UniProtKB/TrEMBL annotation:
The keyword Disulfide bond does not apply. Keywords: Membrane, Transmembrane, Transmembrane helix. InterPro entries: Gap/Sap (IPR021315). The lineage of its organism: Bacteria, Bacillati, Actinomycetota, Actinomycetes, Mycobacteriales. This is GAP family protein. The chain crosses the membrane at residues 6-29, 41-69, 81-98, 119-142, 154-178, 199-221. Pfam families: SfLAP (PF11139). The keyword Signal does not apply.
Length: 227
């Protein structure tokens, strides 16, 4: 259980470096400052929408996998485990090799409506989550690892919710720093945003390679179990 939680924590930290969420949160903060409003309501509305859809997707996915496992009386064998490690490792390496587009084309379209109705950012976050969550390799890998536990931990829904909360820590930290008016808070805010936007994609790419290599090597070490 401890190894599982540590692994899930690592994947959640990877998810927390999502440049797109940080960029949108920063845009919300900047727009709130222009209109002399607090960014808290709009920012929490957006991140809340992402959180809700992430938790819902995770719970439904684990329940679906668990239902299929029970239906077919599935037992995880060493063959399936190491083939799973090999496939996940290869996917991580392939994703690490893909170009990462962090631009926000057409981001000005939502500005005027959400200035009048901040809750619309929650809908925007929910919609963005629907597109983002099913393609999040760390999250999908984490759900697969959690679903493979037999029996499932009693508190597995809380584990899913905790994962989703940790995955939003960096955007939440950006939002929290934006509410502080001290010179130090402003400096940390600028450094954090610039650092995540500049170094986030390379760091995630490197960690994908590290995790992918570890999984592939472990699978190859147990190559006798692959056949």
């Amino acid at each position: 259980m401890g190894v599982l939680l540590i692994t899930l924590l690592g994947f959640a930290v990877l998810d927390a470096l999502d440049v797109l969420l940080v960029a949108i949160t920063t845009a919300v903060v900047a727009d709130s400052r222009l209109t002399r409003r607090s960014p808290v309501v709009s920012g929490l509305s957006f991140l809340g929408g992402v959180f809700v859809v992430s938790v819902a997707f995770g719970v439904v996915t684990v329940l679906g996998i668990d239902f299929l496992v029970r239906l077919f009386d599935f037992q995880l064998t060493p063959l399936q485990r190491y083939w799973g490690e090999l496939l996940i490792g290869v996917v991580l390496l392939v994703v690490a090799a893909l170009p990462m587009d962090t631009t926000m084309r057409g981001s000005g379209r939502w500005v005027q409506p959400v200035r009048r109705y901040p809750w619309l950012l929650g809908v925007f976050g929910f919609t963005l989550g629907l597109a983002k969550v099913p393609t999040s390799v760390p999250y999908l890998a984490a759900l697969a690892l959690l679903s493979a536990q037999r029996p499932l931990p009693v508190v597995w829904p809380l584990i899913v919710a905790g994962y989703c909360a940790i995955a939003l820590l960096v955007p939440l930290l950006v939002l929290a720093l934006a509410t502080r008016r001290t010179p130090r808070a402003r400096k940390v805010y600028r450094v954090l945003v610039r650092g995540v936007i500049r170094f986030g994609p390379p760091v995630v790419r490197v960690l994908f390679v590290v995790f992918g290599v570890i999984l592939v090597v472990d699978a190859l070490v147990h190559a006798s179990q692959l056949w």
